[in-house]
Amino acid sequence: MRCGLRVWLRNAHSSILHKHLCTLSRTMSTAFDRQAFEDVLKRRYFVCPSFEIYGGVAGLYDFGPPGCGMKANFLAEWRKHFVLEEKMLELDSTCLTPDVVLRTSGHVEKFQDMMVRDVETGDVFRADHLLEAKLEALIKEAADDAKKAELNVTLSNVPGYGMEELGAKLKEFAVVSPDTGNALSDPFPFNLMFGTQIGPTGNLPGFLRPETAQGIFVNFRRLLEFNNGKIPFAAAQIGQAFRNEIAPRSGLLRVREFTMAEIEHFVNEEDKSHPKFDRVKSTEALFLSRATQQEGKDAVPMTFGDAVGNGVINNETLGYFMARTQLFLLRCGVTPDRLRFRQHMGNEMAHYAQDCWDAEIHTSYGWIECVGHADRSCYDLQVHTEKSKTSLTVFESFDEPKEVDVVEPQVNKGVVGKAFRKNAKDVLSWFNELSMEDALSAQEKLDAEGSITATVCSGSYEITKDMVSFAKKKKKLTGRHIVPHVIEPSFGIGRILYAILEHAYYVREGDEQRAVLALSPVIAPIKVAVLPLMPKDNLLAKANEIVDLLTDSALANRFDDSGVAIGRKYARVDEIGVPFAVTIDYESLESNTVTLRERDSTQQLRVPIDSLTPWLRDLVSGKKTWDDAKAALPSVDSASN
Predict the structure, then answer these.
(1) Backbone torsions φ then ψ of 297, nearest 5 degrees
(2) Contacting residues for 468 by C-beta, under 8 A, at least 6 apart
(3) What is the DSSP letter of 199?
(4) Per-residue pLDDT tens digits for 366-401
(5) 453, 463 in Cβ contact below 8 A?
(6) Rounded to whole angstroms, how far apart are CA atoms 402 and 381?
(7) Closest CA to 409 of 458, 449, 447, 443
C-alpha cells in the first residue's frame, strides 16, 4: 500500500480534505445554481450532447478534454485503490453478448422497467420515477411529521413495487403526465437491453451488454486457473454498458451508454469473513437500513464494525468493500455528509440476493444510486454451469479425509455406446451430474418402470435398467466441489463524476462571475497551470522550461501565454479545476524561482525551480499538504488572486 494512501486510510479527514470540505460547506449554504453549473460544464467542454450539430440524441453524451482527463484519472485511481491494492484479476470482455448468456442470467426475461404513456400525446415515462417525484413533492408540502413519515415509507417501497402495485399507487396519488397534466396509462414492462444480430445471417441473436459482470462469470474457469485454483479472489472489469432508458433525463445521471467498473469477489459460502476487515471496522458511515426506511427515519451514523456485528450488514466481506468504496469516494472528492448507504428493501432484491446496499450520493437531483453492493450468493455461476454444462466450481480440500455418503452410477458403457453412439458422452455426463437425491429417485423409477428419460443438450433419450444403476455407498473424500458465492461492488462512473463535479462547484465570494471547480488533485484533469506574467520572450522561454519539467514528471499541465491579466488567467484555470498554478515573473529570471498558487485558498508561495516538481508530485498525490508547503516555503503577497 502506498505511503500516501496509508495516511489517508488512517485519517479520512486530512487537512487537505478538511480545507476542501470547508469550501464546499460554504458553497452548499446557499441555493445551488444548477443552470450556472451545467453552463460551466458545457462551456469549458467537460461534457456535451452527442451528435450536437444534428440536434443530439437523448441519453447520449460525449466527454471533452477536461472531462476525458478527469474520467481517466478517476479510473486510474480506481485501479490503484481496488485492483492493485486488493490484488484483483482484471479482464476486458466483449460488449456484444449472445442471447444465450443473457437469457441464462435472467436479463432477457427480467431486465425491465415499468413504463406509462401519456394517453393524449403518446409520450412515455418511467412509472416509478413519476411516483417518486410526486411523493417527494408531497413530503415537502406535508404539514405534520406523521404524514411525512408515512409518505417516506411509501417512497422507500417504490423500487420494490410490481406492475400492479405501481399502477395502484399512481392512481392513489393522482399522478399525471409531468409535461401536459394529461392522464397516464396503466404501467407496462419495457426491456432495457439493445438487441442486435451477430453475423450477417441473423441466426445468432445478441445484445449490447447491460453490465460487465456476465463477462467475468463466463470466464470464471480461466480466472480460477490463473489464481492457482484457490478462492477467495476478486476479478475486476472496466467497460461500457448499454441500457435503452425509457426517458433519459438529468444529464449524466441517466444515460443510454455509460462506463461501469465492476468487481466480483468469489468466496466460500461458509466463510465470508475478510482478513483486512479490522482495518476498516472503525470507519463510520451513514446507514439507511431496511428497518430505518420502514420507520420513515433518516440515515444514522454507525461504524462498519458495529453494522456487521449487529447484523445490519450481512457479512464482513460485503462490509469491507462498502468501507473501501467510501474511502475511495471521499478521496476523489465526494462530501462525507452527502454520502450514505441505503439497504434494499426485501421486495426490491433479486430472489437469490442475500443482502444489497447502494452507495447514494446527494446532488441537486436528490439522492442518486452510484455504487451497488450485493451479495449475489452463487446464482450466476450456478445457472451458467447448468446451461453450459461446464463446471464453474472450486475444489475445496479438507484438512482431514471425510467419510460421506455418495451415489455413484454403475454404467454398462458397451450398451450405452451402442445405443447412443456419438451422443453417448452427453448421456454419461448426465449420469455423473445427477445429485444424490435425483440419482436415488432415478433408481427407484428404473426399478419400478424399467426406464427413465435423460434430457441433455443433444436431445432426450430413454435409459433402461441394463444401462445404469445407482447405489448409495460410503466413500472417503479429500475434498469437495463447491460453487463460490459472489460479493459484487458495481460503480456507475458517469454518475459519480457528475456528483463530484456538483460537490466541487462554487463561485468566489463577492464575485458571482468567478466559478471554481474545487476538484481533488487526484482526479483533476490538469494538475498545474503554467502562467507567464506577460507574453514577453524571456518570460515565455522560462515558462517553456517549466512545461518541459512538468511534462517529464508526468504532471498534466496547461500553458497560457495569452496577453490577458494574470487574475484572468487564474480565473480560467480555476473554472476547469486546476489545483495549482505556477507563475513566471521577472524575479524568476533573477532567482530561478516561481510562485506556486493553490486554487482554493488562492495563497501563493515562492518555490525554487529545482524543487518545484517534487513539491507538486507530493501535493498532487496527497503525500504532503498545502500546510506542509506553507511551513517550508516563503509566502508571496498578491492582489491578483
Answers:
(1) -100, 170
(2) 409, 410, 411, 412, 416, 431, 446
(3) S
(4) 999 999 999 999 999 999 999 998 999 999 988 889
(5) yes
(6) 26
(7) 443
